[in-house]
Amino acid sequence: METKIVTLTLNPVTVEVKVKKNSSDHEIIEAAKKEVLKSLAVKFPGVTYTIGEENAITASNAQPGIIVETNDGEKGIITGVNAKTIDVTLTGHRGLRGPHGAFKKSSAPFEEARSKRQKWQIESNEWLEGDSGYLDVQGNLVPVVVGKSKGKKYKLYTINSEKGAHYTVEENQLRFLKDDEGK
User: Whose CA is closest to 115, among 141, 77, 80?
Assistant: First the structure.
């Protein structure tokens, strides 16, 4: 016997509810929930689904900075999460977007999963989404991955941290980001 993670995305379900005049939104929603449960017992709506391994990344545990791997064993780091997909930068700067459940959490160390900056980026001092390095925080080097940037602001996600901890830095603060621990 093995464990699988199944994510079902239900098509919208519409129900009719009878409520007292001037009912609050909360009361209406609670009545609708009861009707939906009755409706599901009679007719299950259409679904889309993903089936993943026991340690699959799901909507509830996906966050930027987590080290993951594909079913083929390729390693990478999550750089973005939205309602239906996860953005991952695999080693070698290969970007991949997949549904929740397409990746599983990896026990690989940071150095095996990261994408270092390319030579031209080092020469021009550029950091792009998916690049990873070490942020100097009061003398401590913290492993991070560069997430999406907005204008001249960058989110640097700490690796395998609780609840997607990150630092937001200005473009001129990227000088505190190091390619390797020793530099």
Answer: 77
pTM: 0.72
Is residue 55 within 8 Å of 68, Cβ to Cβ?
A: no
Q: How far apart are CA 157 and CA 78, in angstroms?
A: 9
137 pLDDT band (50/70/90 cuts)?
confident
Q: What is the predicted pLDDT for the residue at 72?
A: 85
The secondary structure of the chain, three-state, reads: CCCEEEEEEECCCCCCCCCCCCCCHHHHHHHHHHHHHHHHHHCCCCEEEEEEECCECCCCCCCCCCEEECCCCCEEEEEEECCCEEEEEECCCEEEEEECCCCEECCCCHHHHCCCCCHHHHHHCCCCCCCEEEEEECCEEEEEEEEEEECCEEEEEECCCHHHCEEEEEHHHHHHEECCCCC
- Can you tell me the distance from the alpha carbon of 103 to that of 55, in angstroms, rounded to the nearest whole number? 9
**What letters, b where the CB count within 10 A reaches 16 and e where it falls short, cover 114-138?**
bbbbeeeeeeeeebebbbbbbbeee
